Amino acid sequence: MKPGAHPRYLNRELSWLEFNQRVLEEARDPDNPLLERVKFFCIFSSNLDEFFEVRVAGLKQQTEGGAAERSPDGLTPTENLRAITRRVRRMVQEQSACWREELVPALARHGVRFLAPATLEGEDRRWVESFYRAEVRPVLTPLGVDPTHPFPQLLNKSLNLVVRLETTVNGLPRQRLAVVQVPRLLPRLIRLPREDGRQDYVFLEHLIGGYLADLFPGTPLQGHWTFRLTRNSELYIDEEEVANLLKAVETQLLNRRRGEVVRLEVESDCPPDIRAELLETLGLTDDDLYALGSPLNPGRLMVICEGDHSPELRDPPFLAPTAAALRHQADLFAVMRERDVLLHHPYESFDSVVAFLRQAASDPRVLAIKQTLYRTGGDPRIIGALMDAVANDKQVTAVVELKARFDEANNIEWARRLEDFGVHVVYGLVGYKVHGKITLVVRRDDDGLRRYVHLSTGNYNPATARLYTDVGLLTCHPDFGEDATTLFNLLTGICHFQGMRKFLLAPFELHRRLVALVRRESAHAQRGLPARVIAKMNSLVDTDLIDALYEASQAGVQIDLVVRGICCLRPRVRGLSENIRVRSLVGRFLEHSRLFYFENACQPEVWAGSADWMPRNFFRRIEILFPIEDGNLRDRVATELLGVALTDTVKARLMQPDGSYRRPAPQRGVPPRNAHAELMARALQAARGEPNGRAPATPYPKLTPAPRPSRRGA
């Protein structure tokens, strides 16, 4: 082991790559419908893009700045980059094989083909040439590279062709390069006209490549190859120094498109000398080069999944029903006065949240609406409700996070629209991202003013609410209303944090209190009292909480972690984490809810919120963790939302001590269980009025202690 290494923790970046490997496995899984496999293939590549734009770019900056500090797992930035390169190369090889050997042949068997322009004949050839002349040629710009024409400034993640030409200089032949940018405004896949339902496509870059002689008339062409650059896309803003955060973010967005290059992708048959020249021109090394045997920038291949064709190649449709507590209820405020309501998306419709906002906007008794907005996607129902509220003379405040990564431009656009309409828009606290999800509605009821609150683990985005698993709570509990008021005063005013009645708030106390909750379980276990922790989140990185979990495991606490992405904790290591099990669910929906169960000596506490267990969430963001206090709702979270995740044997992977993952071994006589499928079935059963939405033949098991791990150790 390297000097200074810490075997207690796994590497953050390599753990994230293992998560993306699980995404790629879904693309390769023949049990998934074919078009769903294509979606996973595209998601894998988009994930990898963002990883290079942010994480790899940050490590490169550290190495260039001479940083030598080791990460918690013991690697220096340089060692980390080398490990990433080795792992990504293997993933890229698998990605290419997945495309060539699995997806392309399978798509062809179902009438979806990708044709080379040179193979087209007759009407197809004439149609393609007409399309090129009318739609493509007018927007192409051939860019020569020579002493008077420097290498062009290419945009981040843009697709380009590098062309090798033969010219004559002083009567002697000389090779030159040129670049042709593949226009982003045109579709990546050109669909040929068909009347029989077949889907035949030509890649835009292949179409352009077939007509390069038209762009370089009279110049011999020796070859052309596709390449793509990835640039550093992090925003660098000193909020203490800028006078206008909105303007500063807009300026940085322009810079993002031209940040330092961190990765070069080329198609696999690109010659070594062309690769070398591109690397030298871009200031990169061989470690930054990735050769793909599959299309570059496959995110735009999603077009083949669009439309209502081929239902047999997709997941069965699922229309989320309204939550039982809100079904046939016209007055949501009346329901909330009777009891708290738990919403579980996407299994229960997000339309209930939209209805809550719209009802608040139109209700003459409502005086004020306050809401945090992180990623709405500019949905007209969310934004429209706030605008309608202003039109109805209500006081409306929106706390908008301008720095929501890769959503900055959208957030700026609709923040300005809200301001123009009269919404009071605030951009949060200096130095912190506002990541907590909360809406506060102040209403004058018959018995006085009452505050109605919606809290969530996910964004106010109806589109992603159909794809992400999240939990929301509707409540008018006075303490929740007081905490919500205190929070918005903190975000919009100039004041100091004075504590909360119910919420745990980052960056002020959330980290300390979570560590204390884990340690309380350790104390219970040491006294022989029931102790258990179940935690579901996207990422687990914080070493203080990892250490607290290790201590709890050693004290005898049974710990189950459902971590979709990064997990730096090593489970099931003898003497360290024998009582900790970690699983990841990657399937039809994106696991996004953060839920935490503490047994607390048979007085269980259940919490939900917006924060993963990462330093950035604890110390650089405004995050909310809220308790589920209603006993029935608490039991539902423990038994259904968490319990079903712990029984999945289809989409779950079990984490090994070395950071790798394995699917659960099938057990003889035990039917496989798919958490997403079961929760959809339960929701539909509940909509039909079946008791508890549960099929009597398949009850959910109670939470039981974990079996002790094998003594063969880690």
Helix count equals: 18
CATH architecture of the largest domain, please?
2-Layer Sandwich
**CATH-level-4 superfamily name of the largest domain:** Polyphosphate kinase middle domain
For the report, how would you describe the main beta sheet? Answer: 10 strands, mixed
- Quaternary status: single chain
CATH hierarchy, class of the largest domain? Alpha Beta
Strand content: 15-25%
Looking at the structure, what is the overall shape? globular
Separation of the first and last Cα atoms: 15 Å
- Helix share bin: 25-40%
Could you tell me the CATH topology label of the largest domain.
Answer: polyphosphate kinase like
Please tell me the total number of domains: 3
Radius of gyration: 28 Å
Class by SSE composition = alpha/beta
Average pLDDT metric = 89
Low-pLDDT residue spans: 1-5, 237-243, 693-714
The count of DSSP E runs of length 2 or more, i.e. the number of strands, is 27
How would you describe what is shown here?
The chain is an alpha/beta fold and 714 residues long. The protein folds into 3 domains: 12-313, Polyphosphate kinase middle domain (polyphosphate kinase like), CATH 3.30.1840; 324-501, 2-Layer Sandwich (Endonuclease, Chain A), CATH 3.30.870.10; 505-693, Endonuclease, Chain A. The strands form 4 sheets. Strands 14, 18, 19, 20, 21, 23, 24, 25, 26 and 27 form a 10-stranded mixed sheet that branches. Strands 10, 11, 12, 13, 15, 16, 17 and 22 form an 8-stranded mixed sheet that branches. Strands 2-4-3-7-8-9 form a 6-stranded mixed sheet, with helices on both faces. Strand 12, helix 12 (408-421) and strand 13 (424-426) form a beta-alpha-beta unit. Helix 1 (12-28) packs antiparallel against helix 2 (34-64), helix 1 runs parallel beside helix 3 (77-109) and helix 10 runs parallel beside helix 11 (380-391). The two termini are 15 Å apart. The relative contact order is 0.08.
